[in-house]
Each structure stands twice: as C-alpha cells, then as structure tokens.
Design a protein that fits this description.
Strands 1-2-3 form a 3-stranded antiparallel beta sheet. It has one domain. The model has no long low-confidence stretch (mean pLDDT 76). It has 2 helices and 3 strands; from the N terminus they run αβββα. A hairpin with a 5-residue loop joins β2 and β3. The protein is α+β, with helices and mostly antiparallel strands. The radius of gyration is 26 Å and the shape is rod-shaped. The protein starts with a helix and ends in a 7-residue tail after the last helix.
Length: 80
C-alpha cells in the first residue's frame, strides 16, 4: 500500500475541517433562563415569582387574585 503526501494532506485538512464544524455551537443558550417559585401564604393565597437567571431580576410577581385574572385573560395558555 502506497501513501503519497497529497492524500495525507487532504485527509488531515478534511479531519481538521470536520473538527471545526463539530465544535461550532451557539454561544448563548436560553435553556433554563427563567425560574419560578410558588410560595403559599395561606391555604387560599399564593405568591408566584418569575426570575430571569441571566440578569437576576424578577420578571413577574403575581399574588392571589392576579393569578386568577392572568389565567382567565389568556385563553391560549394550554396550546403549544
């Protein structure tokens, strides 16, 4: 079996390009960006807080009747 330098160089360049393509991935991933907590104030009243984990700011804080209003105002909440 005879190997010439041209075939070796083509194989190395091809392998290097494949490694570059496999390593290129999006730098910013949005999976797990928002977290929420549900706190029970009493048996009838709840507090829901939604936090953006990249900035550390609370995006939305809902309490008791606000939760019910938001559910009623959003008829498409169960659709994907």
């Amino acid at each position: 079996m005879k190997l010439d330098i041209k075939s070796v160089l083509i194989g190395l360049l091809f392998g290097f390009n494949i490694m570059l393509l496999m390593g290129s991935a999006p730098l910013k991933k949005e999976v797990g960006r928002y977290q929420f907590e549900i706190h029970s104030v009493n048996s009838l009243n709840f507090l829901i807080a939604v936090m953006d984990t990249t900035t550390g700011e609370f995006v939305k804080i809902l309490e008791g009747t606000e939760i019910n209003k938001e559910i009623k105002d959003n008829p498409n909440r169960l659709k994907k």
